[in-house]
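Throughout our pipeline, every protein is held as a single compact record rather than as scattered files. Such a record has a labelled line for the sequence and another for the backbone structure tokens. This encoding replaces a full spatial description with a residue-level series of whole-number codes. For reference, a complete record is included directly beneath this paragraph.
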Amino acid sequence: MFIQVIQGKSSKREEVRQLSDSWVSENGGGAPGWLGGTYGFTDNDDFFAVVRFESREKATENSQRPETDEFAGRMAALCDGPPSFYNLDIVQEL
């Protein structure tokens, strides 16, 4: 398993939730190796997403899709600054 953690700041919580929900319903099933994710906000508008994939290769394949690129652009527009990405190959599922 491979996970990607995305961290950003957004004062547009509802718009981020709506966009995330629309991505899951429109693209989630077609995303290569996508296993799901957990998303949320802290009290000070930090946004975190933990996205699970079968492998780094599948996550990379997904990142190269036009649908993913369009989603990332729309998400970045909702953020109050550039998001940070963390890629984790060594993952333990409990």
Notes: The first helix runs from residue 13 to 27. Residues 18 and 24 are 10 Å apart (CA to CA). The chain has a mean pLDDT of 90.
